[in-house]
Design a protein that fits this description.
Elements: E1 2-6, H1 16-29, E2 32-35, H2 47-50, H3 52-68, E3 73-75, H4 78-90, H5 94-104, E4 117-119, H6 120-135, E5 145-148, H7 158-161, H8 171-178, E6 182-183, H9 202-218, E7 223-226, H10 229-237, H11 239-246, E8 254-256, H12 257-264, H13 282-286
Parallel strand pairs: 1-2, 1-3, 3-4, 5-6, 5-7, 7-8
């Protein structure tokens, strides 16, 4: 399988461990990632709020780059997934498409609309398949209770994302079960992490993140895992602020999606960038031990 690799902004800078883990897991599963340095930011939170058509054009350009190479596009960020997918949806409007074509035409870029946008979670659970991944597990995550945290944009708006329900998704839990972990079901797993208002109302954002972590912990989670680097920032990097907002320590390790899979497939914590996390993951990793077979 060959895919145009769209890492997004965070995985290339503050969240480089996500890129490390993604590349390790894809090599282990035979997924060839084709890099395109000319990809640009998806514009979420900035361009999309200022100029919707410009934001669609920005993402249509990214999609056109993958289309020209004859590849579908792999994302590892729920927010990028949302922006790129919604660009495809909005381009179905003839008026929007005409304005986007007019913006891209002078650059010699044309997007025909054929690029499929695939988040890593969908690639793992649908294209590779949970049973194929289960067969490659060398370090079952037995005894580790993990609360999946989906975030907003991977599931919503559901009529445009056209995937699992935003209320009762199961793909991440299916994957956790395949790698030997015990998935934890809790209400907060489909709620917002607070990141969208982190720079406007930081206290409110921290309180939101703290409540989601509390919810996972109350249901027995030893760790959380998310398919979105922005959620990871809220839950891991800002966990100290979240703890202050709820009035007590949280001490919740938070994994990126490919880190959980990578551990089960035999990667070391260092290969997956776990030492980069602000909340130590050692207590969670200690629960699963060493690989049981080569």
């Amino acid at each position: 399988m060959r895919l145009a690799y769209y890492p997004g902004c965070v995985a290339q800078e503050s969240g480089k461990e996500l890129d490390m883990a993604t590349r390790w897991v894809c090599r282990a599963l035979g997924i060839e990632l084709v890099a395109f340095p000319s990809f640009s930011c998806c514009g979420s939170g900035f361009v999309d709020e200022a100029n919707e058509v410009l934001n669609v054009a920005l993402n249509a350009r990214n999609l056109a780059i993958a289309e020209k190479a004859g590849l579908d596009l792999l994302t590892i960020c729920s927010t990028c997934q949302g922006m790129l997918t919604l660009a495809n949806v909005r381009l179905a409007d003839p008026k929007v498409k005409a304005r986007v074509d007019a913006a891209l035409g002078p650059l010699g870029i044309h997007y025909g609309g054929s690029t499929k946008v695939k988040h890593l979670l969908r690639v793992l659970t649908e294209d590779i398949g949970v049973e194929a991944i289960r067969a490659k597990v060398v370090r079952p995550l037995a005894g580790l209770k993990v609360g999946a945290f989906y975030g907003c944009h991977l599931l919503r708006p559901s009529d445009e994302m056209q995937w699992q329900t935003g209320e009762e998704p199961h793909a991440f839990e299916d994957l956790l079960t395949a790698v030997g972990a015990d998935p934890v079901y809790y209400r907060g797993r489909v709620m917002c992490c607070g990141f969208p208002i982190q720079f406007v109302k930081p206290e409110t954002a921290s309180r939101i993140a703290g409540r989601q972590i509390e919810d996972a912990k109350a249901h027995g989670a030893d760790a959380m895992a998310t398919p979105c680097p922005l959620c990871h920032i809220s839950l891991d990097a800002y966990q100290n602020q979240a703890a202050k907002a709820v009035g007590h320590r949280l001490d919740m390790p938070v994994f990126h999606l490919p880190q959980v899979v990578g551990l089960a497939l035999g990667a070391t914590p260092e290969e997956l960038g776990l030492p980069r996390h602000l909340v130590p993951t050692d207590p969670a990793v200690a629960k699963i031990g060493r690989p049981v077979r080569a």
